[in-house]
From TrEMBL:
<dbReference type="InterPro" id="IPR040442">
    <property type="entry name" value="Pyrv_kinase-like_dom_sf"/>
</dbReference>
<keyword id="KW-0808">Transferase</keyword>
<dbReference type="GO" id="GO:0000287">
    <property type="term" value="F:magnesium ion binding"/>
</dbReference>
<comment type="similarity">
    <text>Belongs to the PanB family.</text>
</comment>
<feature type="binding site">
    <location>
        <position position="90"/>
    </location>
    <ligand>
        <name>Mg(2+)</name>
    </ligand>
</feature>
<feature type="binding site">
    <location>
        <position position="120"/>
    </location>
    <ligand>
        <name>3-methyl-2-oxobutanoate</name>
    </ligand>
</feature>
<comment type="pathway">
    <text>Cofactor biosynthesis; (R)-pantothenate biosynthesis; (R)-pantoate from 3-methyl-2-oxobutanoate: step 1/2.</text>
</comment>
<feature type="binding site">
    <location>
        <position position="90"/>
    </location>
    <ligand>
        <name>3-methyl-2-oxobutanoate</name>
    </ligand>
</feature>
<protein>
    <recommendedName>
        <fullName>3-methyl-2-oxobutanoate hydroxymethyltransferase</fullName>
        <ecNumber>2.1.2.11</ecNumber>
    </recommendedName>
</protein>
<dbReference type="GO" id="GO:0015940">
    <property type="term" value="P:pantothenate biosynthetic process"/>
</dbReference>
<keyword id="KW-0460">Magnesium</keyword>
<dbReference type="InterPro" id="IPR003700">
    <property type="entry name" value="Pantoate_hydroxy_MeTrfase"/>
</dbReference>
<dbReference type="GO" id="GO:0032259">
    <property type="term" value="P:methylation"/>
</dbReference>
<dbReference type="GO" id="GO:0008168">
    <property type="term" value="F:methyltransferase activity"/>
</dbReference>
<feature type="binding site">
    <location>
        <position position="122"/>
    </location>
    <ligand>
        <name>Mg(2+)</name>
    </ligand>
</feature>
<keyword id="KW-0963">Cytoplasm</keyword>
<comment type="subunit">
    <text>Homodecamer; pentamer of dimers.</text>
</comment>
């Protein structure tokens, strides 16, 4: 089936995001599906099809469950559901780390098959050749430093970064490396507040914070976390702006009771032999 992709020229460009350095904060959220992208598109500057989709929608324990095909399918859905936001799709673990050639091939597939504006990948100094090669191929890249969920197994868990002098210096090296490699922006995740604020002052590309600092040039949250849909542990840095867990479980409870009592479907939800105006 042909995919109907909206034209990209009315979208917020990665260049427009880059120019927002030290300006009005950049509003970002993750999105994985068509209906949610439709709801968010008017309110955000950037939608990230994060590899968190593997955990949030597919029930994997870590983001390592994401595949390129999974990211492309969700990227297509988010592109169909949005017309304005800059859309960035994550490169999942195992699709870019081996070499610059592998990174460019994966990024090219994501761009060609979704029509999104940019890709994101995790890593700093260790990923500069990958970032530089993707950018040289004409594909904008968003970096991701600090806590890197694709490395949690290697790191032995979700560990906040920047708590030792050594770690602070490494984070700054990572931020500068990502900037110098040509990224248009960088996510800073799970990092000591003062360190994220300092990096934001020292680099010329926008920083997007998640569990980082209010001084970052923008903020991002995982959509399911911020609307209260997360059923497992909600991280400290999340603010729940709605409680959809309660809304959904109350709706399901009421529906179940009405089905069992034969209250649903009622007269307004069934069809008579003669066509009426409100028939579908
Ligand atoms: O995958 C994701 O959702 C992310 C954000 C948390 C930045 O990388």
């Amino acid at each position: 089936m042909a995919t109907e992709l909206p034209t990209t020229d009315i979208r917020i460009s990665t260049e427009a995001i880059r120019r927002r350095k030290a300006g009005t904060p950049i509003v970002c959220l993750t999105a994985y599906t068509y209906p949610v992208a439709r709801l968010l598109d008017d309110h955000v500057d950037l939608l990230l099809v994060g590899d968190s989709v593997a955990m949030v929608l597919h029930g994997y324990k870590t983001t390592l469950g994401a595949s390129l095909e999974m990211m492309i399918a969700h990227g297509q859905a988010v592109m169909r559901g949005s017309a304005r936001a800059c859309v960035v799709v994550d490169l999942p673990a195992g699709t870019y780390e081996a070499s610059a050639t592998q990174a460019v091939a994966s990024a090219r597939r994501v761009i060609d098959e979704t029509g999104c504006q940019a890709v994101k990948l995790e890593g700093g100094v260790d990923m500069t050749s990958q970032i530089a090669a993707i950018v040289a191929a004409g594909i904008p890249v968003m970096g991701h430093i600090g806590l890197q969920p694709q490395s949690v197994e290697k790191d032995g868990g979700y560990k906040i970064k920047g708590r030792t002098e050594e770690a602070v210096a490494a984070l700054l090296r990572d931020a500068l490396a990502v900037e110098n490699a040509g990224a248009f922006s960088v996510v800073i995740e799970g990092t000591v507040e003062a360190v994220a604020a300092d990096i934001t002052r020292r680099i010329a590309i926008p920083t997007i914070g998640i569990g980082a600092s209010g001084d970052c040039d923008g903020q991002i949250l995982v959509i399911d976390d911020m609307v209260g849909l997360t059923v497992d542990r909600v991280p400290k840095f999340v603010k729940e702006y709605a409680d959809l867990r309660s809304v959904i479980s109350h709706a399901a409870e009421t529906y179940a009771a009405e089905v069992r009592s034969r209250t649903f479907p009622g007269p307004g939800h069934v069809f008579s032999a003669t066509k009426s105006r409100d028939d579908a």
